[in-house]
Amino acid sequence: MNGTVTVVSSSGAYSFTKPNRQTVTLLTGLGVEGDVHAGVTVKHRSRVAQDPTQPNLRQVHLIHEELFDELRAEGFEVAPGDLGENVTTRGVDLLALPVGTLLHLGDEAVVEVTGLRNPCLQIDTFQEGLLKQVVGRDEAGNIVRKAGVMSVVRTGGVVRPGDPVTVELPVGPHRPLERV
């Protein structure tokens, strides 16, 4: 289950969307260089308000580009970077990965998947009704989150569109992703 990086995005300011870039540099243990969410401790405003000393398990946000195809079929226009992700991929079922999966991005960078993104109400401000498309329920009534995965940087490096994404599953019993 390998894929490709299609777009990279970052923003130095708190904003819902992130501009697309030619490259981003991942910094070990911090996140995307120059991105507002980079750091050892939490940077998302709601998390900082709860406890600013929490470890930052949301350094790099990845979304599968296939989600945009699905949303388009439902009448929504969402492009890479629009949902605040740093890395957009194609060909990897990010939501099916277990906790601790390593994603090798390009020649150098490695991120470790920590959990699912839990989108907030701001997503409906971006496009009304979008939250119901990315957070729903399955047939059994379980919450299903589709807005990508969060990760921490294990090995830094430059990431650019066209880079390969190589999946390295963790050893031992796999734990399903939960929201982080």
From TrEMBL:
**Where is each MOSC domain found?**
18-168
Highest taxon of the lineage: Bacteria
* Leader peptide range in chain numbering: none
Any matching Pfam family = MOSC
**Any idea what this protein is called?**
MOSC domain-containing protein
This protein's species is Streptomyces yanii
